[in-house]
Design brief:
Layout (H helix, E strand, L loop, with lengths): L7 E2 L2 E2 L6 H10 L12 E9 L4 E10 L2 E6 L4 E8 L2 E2 L2 E5 L2 E6 L4 E10 L11 E3 L2 E4 L8 E2 L5 E10 L3 E4 L2 E9 L2 E11 L4 E4 L2 E7 L2 E7 L1 H26 L6 E7 L4 E4 L2 E5 L12 H7 L8 E2 L7 H16 L3 H14 L17 H22 L1 H15 L3 E2 L1 H12 L4 H9 L6 E11 L2 E10 L8 E9 L2 E9 L3 E8 L3 E6 L16 H5 L5 E4 L5 H8 L15 E6 H11 L3 H5 L6 E5 L5 E6 L2 H10 L8 E4 L5 E5 L9 E3 L4
Parallel strand pairs: 3-14, 20-21, 21-23, 24-25, 32-33, 33-35
Antiparallel strand pairs: 1-2, 3-4, 4-10, 5-9, 5-13, 6-7, 6-10, 8-9, 11-12, 12-18, 14-17, 15-18, 16-17, 19-20, 22-23, 26-27, 27-30, 28-29, 28-31, 31-38, 34-35, 34-36, 36-37
Helix pairs in contact: 2-3, 3-4, 4-6, 5-6, 6-7, 7-8, 11-14
Length: about 650
C-alpha cells in the first residue's frame, strides 16, 4: 500500500503537507498487520489544520466499490473535488451537509478534497470546536467526508499544524517531525477502526518508553511543569499491570492530552482530560487508569451496543477496582456499589443488557457498579487465573472487532473449562437482586471437633439467582472462610471446625450482588428519586437544588417523614427548622459543623444542605455530585472537606452470634 501524499490547499491538489524526510519515513512505517491485511477499505487522510483560524484543508484517499455513495460533511466545510487517478468524478450536492458520488464499474481509489472552517465555540458547551486554546473534532461531527455502509477501515492520517500547536488522533503515533519550517507534522495509524477523532492544543510534549509503547503527555506549559511527570509515571505503572492481566496493549502509543472541556474521554490510543480535571489530585490514581483500560475494552475490543455495553463494567473492574484492591479498599468499594444499587428507585432498576452508555445517575450505577460486581462474582467463581485468561481470550479473538455479552460468555467459559451460560443469562438478562437470609444456625461438638450447620436462603419474590456466597466463621483463635453454592431457593450447609465458632457471617465483605436488607440513607437515595421535593428556607436556592438533583424540583412547605425531601437554607435557618420539626439528635448535631454541610436524616428520606453563606453553599453543591454514596459531608470555610461518612447500618440479618459451648 502506498501512503497518501497529496493535499488540498485553496482547492489546488498536488503538494504534500509533510516535509520530504517525514514523508519517506512514514512511507516505510505503513505496514498493515497480517490479521487485517485483507481489509477492503483503506483511508488515507492528509490534513493541514490552522486552529487559530479554525481552518481545515484536507484530502482523503479511499478505495470504494462501484455504485452511488452518499457522503456527509458538516456545514462550513465544502467538498471541492473528487478524482480517480487523473479523472475528475462528478459530485452532486444533495443537502446542506450531504453529497453523492457515483463510482464506475469495478470500483476506484478516489481522492476527495475539502476545506473550510469550524468555529472556536465554547468548549464548556460545544463538543466540536477549533481554536488557538484547543480544538476537538469528535468522530460524529462530520469534519471529514464519511460514507454510509463503511463499518470499518484501515487508517493512516497525516497532518500539520502551526509551530506552537500539537495534535493527537485516532491510533498509534508512528512518526512526527517537530517544528520544521514553522510547522509540526505527525502521522497516526490504525489497522481497523470505524471512526476518527482528532484534538489540538498549545501543548508541550513529554514521553517515556514503556516496554516498546510510547507514553506521552500533551499539556499546556503550566500543566506540563506541574503534572506531566506524575501522569507519565502512573501511566507507565498501569500499562505494565494491565498488560499482565488483559494481554499486550493494543497500540504503539498512549497519549494523555488536555482539553478546555471539563471531561474525560477515551479514544483509540489517547485520552482527553479537562484542563481543570488534570490538577485534581485523585485523577492520576483513578480516572487515568479507567481511561487507559478503555484501550483494551471499548476502543480496542469494540462494543456491540445493541446487545448491551459490557465495556464499562469490565473496565471498572479491571482498572478502578483493581487499584482499590491494591490499596486494600476493595470491600469498601463493593459496599458502596451495593448502597448505590439500593438507592435506585424501582422504575430505574434495569438489567445489564439495557445499559448502552452514560456515566451519571442510574446509568452509572447499573453499567459501571453492577457490571463490575458481576465480574467480581465471576472471578470468585472461576478463579483469578481463569478470569485473566478469559480476558486475554476476549482480546485475542475480538481485537478491533465488535464483541457482545455472548462473546464474553464464550471466552470465560473456555478459560474456566465449563459452561457459564446460566450465570451470564441470569446476571445480564434479569433486573433486580437477590435478598439473603441466614437462619437455623447452630453448632455441636463432634468428638474433639465441632460441626456448624445452618441454612442460607434467597427470600426475594423473584426466582432464585445462581450464587456462590462466602461464609466467614469467627472463633477464639481467628477466622476461616468457606462458601455455599446457592442456586436454588435455599441451601443447607455443614462445616466441620477445629474450634468452636463464636459468630458466622454470610457475604461479610459484600462480594455478592444482593439487596441490602436495611441500608443506611445516602445522598443518592434522595437525588435519584424524581419525586424529591424542595423545602427552601430562603429565596434564590432553586439553582442549587437543580444542580444537586439534576432537575427542577417541586416546592413544598410541608414535611412528611415518608416522602423524599431536600431541605436547603442557611445554617441558622436549617438548625431552627430541625428544632421545630423534632428530628433526631444526630440530625441536629450536624447543623453547625464546619461552614457548609450535607447530611441525610437516618430515620427519614430527607437530605439537608446548609451553609454559612452563599459562597460556601455554592462550593458544597458543586462537589456533592462526587459524594452521592455518602450520608454526610462537611466542609470548612476554605472549601476543604473535613468530614465524610455513611451512617452505621443495623445489625445484619447475615450475621449470627453463637453462644460458647
Amino acid at each position: 500500500m502506498r501512503p497518501c501524499n497529496v493535499q488540498a490547499r485553496k482547492g489546488q491538489p498536488g503538494r504534500s503537507f509533510l516535509g520530504p524526510l517525514v514523508a519517506v519515513a512514514l512511507a516505510l512505517l505503513w505496514v498493515l498487520p497480517t490479521n487485517v491485511a485483507a481489509q477492503e477499505i483503506h483511508k488515507f487522510l492528509d490534513l493541514r489544520i490552522d486552529p487559530a483560524q479554525g481552518r481545515i484543508d484536507g484530502q482523503l484517499e479511499v478505495n470504494l466499490p462501484a455504485g452511488r455513495h452518499p457522503i456527509r460533511l458538516r456545514e462550513g466545510l465544502d467538498l471541492l473535488q473528487a478524482q480517480s487517478g487523473d479523472h475528475a468524478l462528478n459530485i452532486q450536492r444533495t443537502g446542506p451537509e450531504t453529497y453523492s458520488l457515483r463510482i464506475p464499474r469495478g470500483g476506484r481509489t478516489v481522492r476527495l478534497v475539502w476545506q473550510g472552517s469550524i468555529a472556536a465555540g465554547d468548549p464548556l458547551r460545544n463538543r466540536t470546536f477549533l481554536g488557538e486554546s484547543g480544538g476537538f473534532l469528535p468522530p460524529e461531527a462530520g469534519w471529514y467526508p464519511s460514507f454510509d455502509g463503511i463499518e470499518s477501515f484501515a487508517l493512516r492520517l497525516t497532518a500539520t499544524v502551526p509551530d506552537g500547536q500539537r495534535f493527537v488522533a485516532t491510533g498509534t503515533l508512528s512518526g512526527q517531525e517537530n517544528a520544521t519550517a514553522g510547522r509540526y507534522s505527525a502521522v497516526y495509524e490504525h489497522p481497523r477502526t470505524d471512526a476518527i477523532a482528532l484534538a489540538t492544543g498549545p501543548w508541550r510534549e513529554r514521553s517515556v518508553d514503556v516496554d516498546g509503547v510510547r507514553v506521552r503527555t500533551l499539556f499546556p506549559p503550566e500543566l506540563d511543569v506541574a503534572h506531566a511527570e506524575t501522569y507519565l509515571a502512573h501511566s507507565a505503572e498501569y500499562l505494565r499491570l494491565f498488560a499482565e492481566r488483559a494481554g499486550p496493549y493494543p497500540f504503539g502509543s498512549f497519549t494523555i492530552a488536555s482539553t478546555p472541556m471539563p471531561i474525560g474521554f477515551a479514544f483509540p490510543g489517547f485520552t482527553l482530560l479537562g484542563e481543570r480535571v488534570i490538577p485534581l489530585p485523585f485523577i492520576p490514581r483513578t480516572s487515568l487508569a479507567h481511561e487507559l483500560m478503555h484501550n483494551w475494552w471499548g476502543t480496542g475490543v469494540l462494543v456491540d451496543y445493541e446487545s448491551g455495553n459490557w465495556a464499562e463494567g469490565l473496565t471498572t473492574f479491571m482498572a478502578d477496582y483493581f487499584l482499590d484492591e491494591m490499596r486494600g479498599e476493595a470491600a469498601q468499594t463493593r459496599y458502596r456499589w451495593l448502597l448505590d444499587l439500593a438507592a435506585l428507585p424501582p422504575d430505574q432498576v434495569h438489567p445489564l443488557r439495557r445499559f448502552k452508555g452514560g456515566n451519571q445517575g442510574a446509568n452509572r450505577i447499573v453499567g459501571y457498579n453492577r457490571g463490575a460486581l458481576l465480574f467480581e462474582m465471576l472471578r470468585e467463581d472461576i478463579g483469578p487465573a481463569a478470569f485473566d485468561r478469559g480476558a486475554q481470550l476476549i482480546r485475542e479473538r475480538h481485537l478491533f472487532e465488535r464483541a457482545d455479552w455472548a462473546d464474553l460468555q464464550q471466552a470465560f467459559s473456555d478459560a474456566a473449562d465449563r459452561e457459564l451460560g446460566a450465570f451470564f443469562e441470569a446476571w445480564i438478562q434479569r433486573p433486580g437482586l437477590p435478598e439473603l437470609r441466614l437462619h437455623s444456625v447452630r453448632q455441636k461438638r463432634d468428638g474433639q471437633h465441632w460441626l456448624l450447620e445452618g441454612t442460607l436462603e434467597q427470600v426475594q419474590a423473584e426466582p432464585p439467582w445462581p450464587l456462590r456466597v462466602p461464609l466467614l466463621v469467627r472463633h477464639d483463635t481467628g477466622s476461616e472462610r468457606h462458601a455455599v453454592t446457592l442456586n436454588a431457593r435455599s441451601a443447607d450447609f455443614l462445616i466441620p471446625l477445629d474450634h468452636a465458632a463464636r459468630a458466622l457471617e454470610a457475604d461479610p465483605e459484600y462480594q455478592v450482588l444482593r439487596h441490602l436488607s436495611d441500608p443506611p440513607t445516602i445522598l443518592r437515595s434522595v437525588t435519584l428519586n424524581p419525586d424529591t421535593r424542595l423545602l427552601a428556607l430562603q429565596e434564590g436556592l432553586e439553582p442549587f437544588a437543580r444542580a444537586l438533583l439534576g432537575h427542577i424540583p417541586e416546592r413544598t412547605e410541608v414535611f412528611d417523614a415518608r416522602e423524599p425531601l431536600l431541605v436547603m437554607g442557611s445554617s441558622e435557618d436549617v438548625a431552627r427548622w430541625l428544632h421545630d420539626t423534632g428530628l433526631s439528635e444526630i440530625s441536629s448535631a450536624f447543623a453547625h459543623r464546619g461552614a457548609a454541610r450535607m447530611w441525610t436524616s437516618p430515620e427519614t428520606p430527607t437530605v439537608l444542605v446548609s451553609a454559612d453563606d452563599f459562597e460556601a453553599l455554592q462550593r458544597l453543591v458543586g462537589m456533592l455530585r462526587h459524594h452521592g454514596h455518602r450520608s454526610y459531608v462537611v466542609q470548612e470555610s476554605s472549601g476543604r472537606t473535613i468530614e465524610t461518612g455513611v451512617w452505621d447500618s443495623p445489625n445484619s440479618v447475615l450475621r449470627v452470634e453463637l453462644e460458647p459451648l
